[in-house]
Each structure stands twice: as structure tokens, then as C-alpha cells.
Amino acid sequence: MPILKIKINNKNIELECGEGEEELLREAEQEINLKLKKHKELQSLSESKKYLMIALIVISEKIVEEKKKSDNEVYYKEIIKELEKLEQILK
Questions:
Q1: What is the 3-state secondary structure (H, E, C) of 7-75?
Q2: Are 34 and 51 members of one domain?
Q3: Are residues 49 and 90 in the same domain?
Q4: Which of 7, 42, 64, 90 is the most exposed place for a label (fewest CB within 10 A)?
Q5: What is the CA radius of gyration of the chain?
């Protein structure tokens, strides 16, 4: 298993990861560092609370994104139904 060196919040960390997971972990590293820069108020927290808050922020954003996708799918299906009705009228 490869050893991956990442830097989060200016702290060097070595991780063992599965083959092919390196790029995904690099993207996660960048995302965490972006969140830490954006949420400067987290810097005063202990490390465990800081990373718990980052996890909560990332997961809540994912939930909102999934909700939007779900809502869009409902609207898309409604549009398709309306288009099918219009096609029937035009025939």
C-alpha cells in the first residue's frame, strides 16, 4: 500500500492508502485546507473539534447538494410529463 504525504493546516501527515486512492485523497486534502481558510473562526478550536466541524461542514454541504439534485430530478420528471401531454395534444 502506498504511503501518501499530505499537508493539512500546515501539518505534515503520512497516510497509508489503497492503490489508486492517492488522487482522491489529494483532492480531499485541498478541500479541507480550503474550508479551513474560509472558516477562520475554526482556528481557535482544538484539533479534534476543528476537524469535527470541518467534517460537519463538508457533509452538510453534500446533503444540500444531494437535496438540490433530488429536487431537480422531480422538476425534470414533471417537465417530461408535461411535454408528453403536449405531444399527445399535438398528435
A1: EECCEEEEEECCCCCHHHHHHHHHHHHHHHHHCHHHHHCCHHHHHHHHHHHHHHHHHHHHHHHHHHHHH
A2: no
A3: yes
A4: 90
A5: 21
